[in-house]
Amino acid sequence: MSLAVVHARAMLGIGAPAVTVEVHLSGGLPSLNIVGLPEAAVRESKDRVRSALINSGFDYPQRRITINLAPADLPKEGGRYDLAIALGILAASKQLPPQSLVGWEVLGELTLAGEIRPVRGVLPAAMVCRDLSRALLVPRLNGAEAALVQGCDVRVADHLLQVCSALRGDSTLESAVAVPPPAVTGLPDLIEVKGQYQARRALEVAAAGSHNLLFSGPPGSGKSMLAARLPGLLPVLGEQERLEVAAVYSVAGCAIDTVGHGSRPFRNPHHTASAVALVGGGSQPRPGEISLAHQGVLFLDELPEFPRAVLDVLREPLETGEILISRAASQMLFPARFQLLAAMNPCPCGYFGDPSGRCRCTPDQIQRYQGRISGPLLDRFDMQLNVKALDPAQLLDPASGRGEASGVVAQRVAAAMSLQQARQGRPNRDLGAAELDQVCGLAPPQRDLLVNAATKLGLSARACHRILRVARTLADLAAEERVGEAQLLEALSFRQGLLRQGGSGAR
Description:
By secondary structure, the chain is an alpha/beta fold. Helices cover about 35% and strands about 15% of the residues. Belongs to the Mg-chelatase subunits D/I family. ComM subfamily.
């Protein structure tokens, strides 16, 4: 029978649905037809495969070749099916034993000389193959990525001839080897920051509870410098988190590098980024910056310079931790559980509220500038802090005191996060309204304090919940079982960074 079946995997979001490559040889004029909703790159594979087979010394069947990529209603893109199609043609023409393909799943693009090129989305395919106990054959350059999935039998090859030799039983394919994790060095350290003790404290609290944080202050006050030091305070990714993040990077075609070995991502898009660049999309949707920041940090510098429509697309992912991209033919769900860190100037010139009095912006200019950030988005920052500029004498004094190193602060952050995992299994940022009553345990005096503060400052219900979450994190850093008055007052102090600016009112 001139029929062969080879198994492959498509790429749909961060999933890897199964694709069966069916190859049938029949009589008629020599031709090759690919059916099953192939896009342009897949249709072009017939020319790549033909040249690869001929240049590798195989006989190209002079018959009518029909290739079906099932299921037929699943869009197929890219050159990831080249190797599977070539093996199917060889098996259908009896140049390979058809039974040798049983139990294998194959991914790879072919060059005209028969070499195997890397493809995107190998990691999700390896995760599925592990669960199904199937061997996965990938290009050598994808081997280290696929080997991140422990328990999956991943084999690598450089050329079509190597694959065919192994399938005939003349040789064996090498197993993929995971690259040893590189040492994480060179992260900016908090010890380099002079002064700014409240901002340093806010950064520690934000890291401990995964809270969203907004720094506001004049140019040169150290907002970006502080933000760059947040990754040094965060613990490495757990096993499941590591695979989730690496899968997003694999689908996006980005280098996994240290992210695949546990380092939390830190994304810093330019303020000219579009909404699609942030949330993802395209004709064949790919992850955007918020998905690439999954389980890590998304830093938006010069926040008001981003178009307001772009910023508002962040509101739903901040609440749900995922982004649903809808197209006419399908919907794709990407993870987007990130920590939002932002920095901004208080006015167009940047010096509103500076003791020097050099700001010449009118109240109307200040209001318009701050109004570029919508109230609902601003309300989603758990902490909003006004960072003041350092005195030049203190900044340039070599003997000026410095704070703790990142390693010392990271130990406290790790201890607080361990308490949260033991208590509720997730960061305090994700606590629901009902859970807050249980984990905070406010006594009547503390409850009255929060009610009075919310009334005077005009805080919304969401803002009150965020203050409670921050207070719970402060209690965890102090290893306190209940939230006390000191934690509530400090949490309130982290909520007033923008309240005194431009008459914008409480958020």
